[in-house]
Amino acid sequence: MSPTIREDPTVPVLYLIACGAPPAAELLSHPEAVPGLQADGWTVCVLCTPSGERFLDPAAVSIATGYPVRVEQRQPGEPDVLPSPDAILVAPLTFNTVNKWALGISDTLALGILNESLGSGLPIAATVWAKEELQKHPAFDGHAQSLFEAGVRFIQPEDGDPRFPWGELRAAMAELLAA
């Protein structure tokens, strides 16, 4: 991640990484997602997996955040269009991305950023959004535990609540901002 000049260096930068699951469609429409995070004082930059891009309108997200949605790696020598992050939020985090991330696979921009960020010690919060059957796969628990032990803070919905926990994620990010 090569740093770029921030418009206001006193405003912390949050990379919101969206994977391919329905909650990614709520990034702008849910008041606790991008709008709430911005109201809390974050400069929000959205990156997503190739599957995650299908769930959102990159042009609308770009207008709302002031930064392009990044999906692909930049070309060698091409400047980074995003400022360096102060924290990472992975929302939603899919079964596929949990497993690849835990194994250190960097075959997408999002995974490359996640792997670098985990190694750099940046604060990272995430919410897994995967079918119960996938979460029962034998690889899942070990990989999620590995990420947890490496410092990823997992925020899960309240038991029985079918909604994505945007409010809980926003609160967790506000705690990071206050720290």
From TrEMBL:
SUPFAM superfamilies: Homo-oligomeric flavin-containing Cys decarboxylases, HFCD. It comes from the Bacteria. Residues 30-110 form the Flavoprotein domain. Pfam families: Flavoprotein. This is Flavoprotein. It comes from Catenulispora subtropica. The lineage of its organism: Bacteria, Bacillati, Actinomycetota, Actinomycetes, Catenulisporales.
